[in-house]
Amino acid sequence: KMDDDDDIPQLSSHTLAALQEFYLEQQEREGMKTSQGFNQYSIGSIEEDWQLSQFWYSAETASCLANEAVVAAGKGGRIACISAPSVYQKLKELDGKDFSVCILEYDRRFSVYGDEFIFYDYNCPLNLPENLLPHSFDIVIADPPYLSEECLQKTAETIKYLTKGKILLCTGAVMEEQAAKHLGVKICKFIPKHSRNLANEFRCYVNYASGLD
Question: Is residue 105 packed enough to be buried (19+ CB in 10 Å), middle (13-18) or exposed (0-12)?
Fold first, then answer.
């Protein structure tokens, strides 16, 4: 009879120590994020997850879109960010007293933002909490995670449900026709940039007179 224990690969004490160190560092990093010194709203405080098709905007683009949203929303305005967490983070950095913002996002890591985080799956576009009243946002900024008409169409249902009228959509240049069809938005001159270059040309679309032209 063989000794069963012999078949189990044992990690060397060196490997175990390295692993433990790695986990500790990870915990410290997470801990830092929640402690005072760390700006939890800075872009990159939550890292991109490519499996969720996440790509953060460059700081300049996020600032530009956030400022546009504040102006478009007006004093005391309400802003909804759908799948656009880097714009949400910039808006929080602006620390505006005269606007409010919430983030609808599939990635539950963003639940660190508390009550402003709303879990959102574009496959169930109207599966929203009851306190998100129809047409209760002055502007909705959306960046559908996938360049497909299905994703745009479903996200569009959510956008139309939430907005009082103004829409700022960020998506690929190839989606221009579908964006017009589903949301009545037109392409802007402003070219959004990402912190990492994307293969697809990316554009912004609006349905109101914006500062992005």
Answer: buried
pLDDT-based confidence at residue 37 (cuts at 50, 70, 90): very low
Q: Is residue 107 a contact partner of residue 129, using CB atoms and an 8 Å limit? A: no
Pairing of strands 77-82, 137-142: parallel
Separation in Å, CA 87 to CA 29, 39, 43, 178, 196:
23, 15, 9, 23, 16
**Model-level pTM greater than 0.85?**
no
Reported as a single tens digit per residue, the pLDDT across 179-189 is 999 999 999 99
- Check if the beta carbon of residue 109 is closer than 8 Å to that of residue 129: no
State the Cα–Cα distance between residues 35 and 85, nearest whole angstrom: 21
Per domain, the residue ranges of the chain are 50-206
List, in order, residues 6 or more apart from 18 with CB less than 8 Å away.
none
pLDDT in tens, 84-114: 998 999 999 887 779 999 999 998 888 888 8
The answer to whether residues 172 and 202 touch, using CB atoms and an 8 Å cutoff, is: yes
Does 1.20.1250.20 match the CATH number of domain 50-206? no
Give the three-state DSSP class for 137.
Answer: strand
Helix H, strand E, coil C: the string for 99-113 is: EEEEEEECCHHHHHH
Dihedral pair phi/psi, residue 106, rounded to 5°:
-75, -30
